[in-house]
Amino acid sequence: MTNDMLMDLQPVLVNHVARTEQLQGLFLYNAAGTWIATSESRWESTLNNADRSYFSHHRSNPSGTALVGAPIISHSSSQWVVPISRRMNDAEGRFAGVVLATLSLEHLRRVLERFDVGEGALTLVVAGHFAARHPLIASDIGKSADALERVLGSANAGFGDARSPIDGIQRFYSFERGRSYPLVVIASSSHDEVLSAWRVSSWLQTLWVLLLCAALLGGVRVIRRALRQRVRAEKELREAHNALAVANARLQKMAQLDGLTGLPNRGYFDRRLARAFKQAQRDGTALALVMVDVDFFKQFNDTYGHVKGDNCLTRVAAALRAVVRRPEDFVARYGGEEMVILLRGPASRAQLRSQRRLVAPSRSWPSHMLDRRWAS
Q: What total number of domains does the chain contain?
């Protein structure tokens, strides 16, 4: 990635962070851990993240899946964040660096504070470490949650009665684990608060014996109020869980799309090409790649400026997207002013000639990557 491309990427990262309040920052590191792009307006040239556990994980693990790490203190903002990272590879599949998004724990704390838990507590555990809690115990953020995990066990969801390893208070609790990410949300209520409703109910039953219908009516009202509170609390907990799931899905989608053109980015195209190539080999079907390179783009960009250049790339992307109409075909931004079209299935000669008239293959596309069967 050239310096010009990194400069163009800087405002894109800043814009994404500004539009997403859950994000603390977006960062790109090279294979040595040096910062090469970030949503921060300024940063020290000596900063290096090679010592982070997520960086070591991606350097030694070839998987391209996103990693949700334990809470850490950010080098740039000195605030607690949750790192969500992904490995970057070069054209030959070797480790080229890490893409990092950081979620603000302050934002998560504000989300938890929206819920009225009375004498109870709401706790969020990320990757086996305490991330957020209401009411807040700042000294516990980032600490291991092994003691809490031993209380919860290995189930994906459940409830129980135990003494809290955080503050030592006996509580009733319920919890649920994230299906795709190492998240645990725990809601708990103190014994006194929960049993107080039972004590009131017992008194009402005694009064029912003495006062008959009047006491029975009062008991029914108490029970209905308690049920409404429980239903409301469960609904709010589900909404918080859904909000976290939507935020994670949005981040995953952002990692697959090119911010300027809206087309899939290079990393997503590489994975799509690998799957399409294997399927074509298995099924014995044709597979065509069309490389699009905008001629004289550098001269155009230097003459009219980056804004016009970006507009040019956006219009080219829109034109390519309009040309490719079959659902199994695929258009992506390969890098810079280069875009690529992946054509699946048996393509007729007329279709191929039409594609050649619209776009010309780039001289920079490696010849050994082209499947020659599409031209036969």
A: 3
Tell me, rounded to whole angstroms, the distance of Cα 192 from its chain centroid.
39
183 and 236 inside one domain: yes
| Domain endpoint, select from 68, 103, 138 | 103
Domain hosting 30: range is: 3-103
d(CA 119, CA 194): 10
How far the first Cα of the chain sits from its last, in Å, is 35
pTM: 0.47
Nearest to 119 by CA among 97, 135, 103: 135
Burial class (CB in 10 A: 0-12, 13-18, 19+), 71: buried
16-20 LR contacts (CB < 8 Å, sep 24+) = 16/254, 16/259, 20/250
- In a domain, residue 260? The reply is no
Q: Over the stretch 302-359, which tens digit does the pLDDT of each residue have?
A: 888 989 889 999 999 898 888 888 888 889 998 888 999 988 876 445 545 555 555 4
Q: Which of 17, 12, 8, 4 is nearest to 259 (CA)?
A: 12
Q: How many alpha carbons lie under 13 Å from residue 83 in its C-beta half-sphere?
A: 25
Count of C-beta atoms within a 10 Å radius of residue 243 = 12
Looking at residue 311, its pLDDT comes to 92
CA atoms of 191 and 231, how far apart (whole Å): 19
247-282 pLDDT, tens digit each: 777 777 777 888 888 889 888 889 988 988 898 888
pLDDT at residue 204 above 80? Answer: no
Which helix (H) or strand (E) segment holds residue 269: the answer is helix 266-283
Residue in the structure block whose two tokens are 């080219």: 316
